[in-house]
Amino acid sequence: MEDQTQQEQASPEVRKRIQASFDRQGLMAHLGARMTHIAPGRVHIVLPARPEVSQQHGYFHAGATSAIADSAGGYAAYTLFPENTEVLTVEYKINLLSPAVGDHIEAVGTVLKPGRTLTVCRLEVFGFQGDGKRKLVAHGQQTLIRVNRPEQ
């Protein structure tokens, strides 16, 4: 099932809308994060290792880890929202299970329960070593709200 999910892609229109929104996020650009997979109800965001996203022991900083997890979940929910809406995080909780180390970390946001107003997502962050091995370093849950796009 995992491999099938990995291959599934959102429609070109949805991918374009999601990527355009992601590209407007100053924090993701500042961190050097990039979106690598957009599927209905599932988004992956990768953050390469750099001194600027580390903490004092050389691990990925919890703030950077949490930020990409929050965005991955938000955009996973947004893939299921209508064109004229936006997404905002209502709350999220994340458990840091292990020091986040590796060449890069990858956040995976997956919709657990879509709703007309509130959507709940699972948040996972994996650390990747040069040998391709991955380790779950953070796990969480998030609630998002669908709001109408403001008139411009």
Explain what the structure shows.
With 152 residues, this protein is an alpha+beta fold. Helices cover 27% and strands 40% of the residues. It contains 4 helices and 6 strands; from the N terminus they run αααββαββββ. β1 (34-39) and β2 (42-48) form a beta hairpin. The termini are far apart. Residues 1-5 have low confidence and may be disordered.
**Count of runs of 4 or more consecutive helical residues:** 4
Overall average pLDDT: 93
CA gyration radius, whole angstroms: 15 Å
Total beta-strand segments:
6
Name the strands of the widest sheet in spatial order.
1-2-4-5-6-3
Main sheet summary: 6 strands, antiparallel
- Categorize the overall geometry: globular
Q: In whole angstroms, how far apart are the ends? A: 42 Å
Task: Give helix and strand order, one letter per element, not per position.
Answer: HHHEEHEEEE
Query: What oligomeric state do these chains adopt?
Result: single chain
Helix content: 25-40%
Q: Low-confidence parts lasting 5 or more residues at pLDDT below 50? A: 1-5
Q: Structural class, judged by helices and strands?
A: alpha+beta
| Beta-strand proportion | 35-45%
